[in-house]
Design goal:
Elements (H helix, E strand, L loop, with lengths): L6 E2 L2 E5 L4 E5 L1 H6 L9 H8 L4 E4 L3 E5 L5 E5 L2 H11 L7 E5 L37
Parallel strand pairs: 2-6
Antiparallel strand pairs: 1-2, 3-7, 4-5, 5-6
Amino acid sequence: MATKPYTREGMPVIDAKSDLKIQITKADIGRADAKDPARCAAAIALKRGHFQDAEVHLGRVFVRSNRGNWQRYVTPKSLRDELIAFDRGGTFEAGEYTLLAPLPSQRLRHKPTGPKKKKGKKRRPRHVIKNVRPVA
């Protein structure tokens, strides 16, 4: 059974093959809007680089290249913490951040390891972070 390819704005999304370092400057932070994945400081820094478009979410970063596709990265914890602080009215710290290539288990079309066996334990309720940008 073939899986349907993941798309964003009609263009295919592929997992990044390697990590990507970005430099976020004070000018990027000054132009940023809180709670907007397309107008945050990291997205502005990516657009200032070699990319046409970018969206930075709490868990994933989507970057559109000139090749006509979106690359998907994992948001590092350091950047995620800055996003949460900025979305809640705090400051964003300028510096270098490394967007992570997804691990095999985080890839869009990873091969499952097999059927999961249900255990008798109840799952812990999921914690939802409030008053921040929407989840991708």
